[in-house]
Amino acid sequence: MINELPQALTIGGSDSDGSAGIQADLLTFFNQKVHGSSVITACVAGNSYGIHDRVLMPTSFIASQFKDLADDYHIRASKTGMLADSKTINDVAENYKKYDFGPLILDPVIITKHGDLLLEQAAFDTLKEKLLPLATIITPNFYEAEKLTGFNKNDSNFMENAAHKLHDMGAKNIIIKGQHDNPNQKVVSDFVLLESGREFWLNAPYHNTDRVNGTGDTLSACITAEIAKGSEMETAIRIAKSYVNQAIKNEIQVGHKFGPINHWA
Ligand code: PXL
């Protein structure tokens, strides 16, 4: 039957080196046996050293991509990645509301591993106002959680407090990804707050490697794929965390600096 195969959508930026953005999302969808489609918001020129150029897509082209998918496909879950600026966030929010593309997984991509800004500061409020209330889950790292909540990561109980604040701001489920910048740490701990009120820590072994570009994209894409297949949120999160951990552990030597994780792992 047409369109019975689970389908997921990624709305974000193309990353020329294939390590992150749309490329990492589509690799993840493929691995999870979900058909992947994309609405491209931006294209960046970059490699494992950093991002060196970018172009943003016009409003009309973002709308055309949404419309063509809606006319033909049955998308069961969607995620966002690089949204660049307020205009693009508004474009995405308006189009997402127009169609039924399933639950929205909001990956609030702000900065890359190299320190390149992918969402301008002036757009943080637009993201909070326009997209956060539409999201089934938001997946910030600790840095993004700081920017969105105004809390400081050094405060006691930062992760728990930030998750509850994001919940108060309208997000239904929240995973805050823990710090992974200390070569001596043994474990990376993420904090999860579910719509039911259940909250828990997710621990995974820390792997000391620079091959970590695209980890956040891959985690949110894997959650999206699992939701598209009908998994419960907690199951989707646990599968995604385990997939990303394997992809970091079994590193591949591609590029000289912050290279891609291993999507075959
Ligand atoms: O990993 C975050 C990310 C998302 N989207 C695009 C990127 C990156 C990081 O490099 O280039 C397009």
Present as ligands are: 3-hydroxy-5-(hydroxymethyl)-2-methylisonicotinaldehyde
Instruction: Give the end-to-end Cα distance, rounded to a whole number of Å.
Output: 31 Å
Helix content: 25-40%
Order of helices and strands: EHEEHEHEHEHHEEEHH
How many separate structural domains?
A: 1
Number of helices: 8
Record field, number of beta strands: 9
CATH class: Alpha Beta
Low-pLDDT segments, ≥5 res: none
Describe this structure in words.
Helix content is 36%, strand content 22%. It has one domain: Ribokinase (UDP-N-acetylmuramoyl-L-alanine:D-glutamate ligase, 3-Layer(aba) Sandwich). The protein has helices at 21-31, 59-72, 86-98, 124-131, 142-149, 158-168, 215-228, 233-249; strands at 7-15, 35-47, 50-56, 77-80, 104-106, 135-138, 173-176, 187-193, 199-205. The two termini are 31 Å apart. α2 (59-72) packs parallel to α3 and α5 crosses α6 (158-168). It has eight helices and nine strands. By secondary structure, it is α/β, with parallel strands linked by helices. It is globular, with a radius of gyration of 17 Å. A hairpin with a 5-residue loop joins β8 and β9 (199-205). The structure holds 3-hydroxy-5-(hydroxymethyl)-2-methylisonicotinaldehyde (PXL). The site of 3-hydroxy-5-(hydroxymethyl)-2-methylisonicotinaldehyde (PXL) has 17 residues, from β1, β2 and α7.
